[in-house]
Specification:
Radius of gyration of chain B: 18 Å
Number of domains of chain B: 1
Strand content of chain A: 15-25%
Oligomer: heterodimer
Order of helices and strands of chain A: E
Shape of chain B: globular
Helix content of chain A: under 10%
Distance between the termini of chain B: 41 Å
Largest sheet of chain B: 2 strands, antiparallel
Number of strands of chain A: 1
Mean pLDDT of chain A: 78
Largest interface: A-B, 10 and 24 residues
Helix content of chain B: over 70%
Order of helices and strands of chain B: HHHHHHHEHEHE
Strand order of the largest sheet of chain B: 1-3
Chain lengths: 10, 220
């Protein structure tokens, strides 16, 4: 699945 | 993980350490905005709810907990611990009432999520935190402006925080080029750009003062 920008960022 | 994102995160960590050092070394919170710290805590708590739902990496989870814990500690120091408590001057930190930052961001987040069809509370709070983070530094910038002459460590604190945001923009550029499964999020980009733009003026005076080796003084 595509990860939306910044969802996995801090 | 890429070099810009990691450098950004480290810059964020350094900024928090510098702030703690600044508080401890001067034994006062004069020149530090408690409001900014409280806004950051709201940002972290609402954004990092995914700690309970999604596991990204040990690094990611550790940093989230560290940001929440360190910011809570800083707020506790300024609000309840001596000598910070009695030296903290709330009248110098009066700009931007918390509710006037929170309410518009909450409204905007609700609207944005309705449009995007993301209706889970976690998504709405995450979007809210993206907007609120852009505003969180504003009270701190106003406190700097009030005292005009910026104490060394306080200047470094704001500098590292700004560097973190700037590096995150480079990180998004990098990711959009090199990551196959990457989806743009324009709300994040726009609020990230706004947030970084707020630091530009401070950066200019910071760099000039470092270049000439003088004190960091902001114009009236």
């Amino acid at each position: 699945a595509k990860v939306a920008a910044a969802k996995d960022e801090l | 993980m890429n070099i810009f994102r990691f450098a950004g995160d480290m810059s964020h960590v350094v900024s928090i350490l510098v702030l703690l050092l600044r508080l401890r070394s001067s034994k006062s919170a004069v020149g530090i905005s408690l409001k900014t710290q409280e806004l950051f805590l709201i940002v972290f708590v609402t954004r990092y709810l995914d700690l309970f739902t999604t596991f990204y990496s040990l690094y990611n989870s550790f940093m989230k907990v560290a940001y929440i814990a360190s910011t809570t500690y800083i707020i506790w120091m300024i609000r309840f611990q001596e000598p910070y408590k009695s030296k903290y001057d709330a009248s110098q930190d009066s700009f931007l009432h918390i509710k006037f930052a929170v309410a518009p961001c909450a409204g905007l987040a609700l609207f944005a999520c309705l449009v995007k069809g993301e209706l889970s509370p976690i998504d709405i709070l995450w979007t809210f935190s993206i907007f609120l983070e852009a505003l969180a530094i504003v009270p701190q910038l106003f406190v700097l402006q009030r005292y005009r002459e910026v104490e060394n460590l306080t200047g470094h604190y704001v500098f590292f925080l700004g560097a973190y945001r700037g590096l995150y923009i480079l990180n998004w550029v990098y990711r959009s080029y090199y990551e196959q499964f990457y989806r743009h999020n324009w709300l994040v980009y726009v609020s990230g750009a706004v947030q970084t733009a707020l630091y530009v003026d401070f950066f200019y005076y910071y760099v000039v003062s470092k270049y000439y080796g003088g004190k960091l003084t902001l114009p009236t």
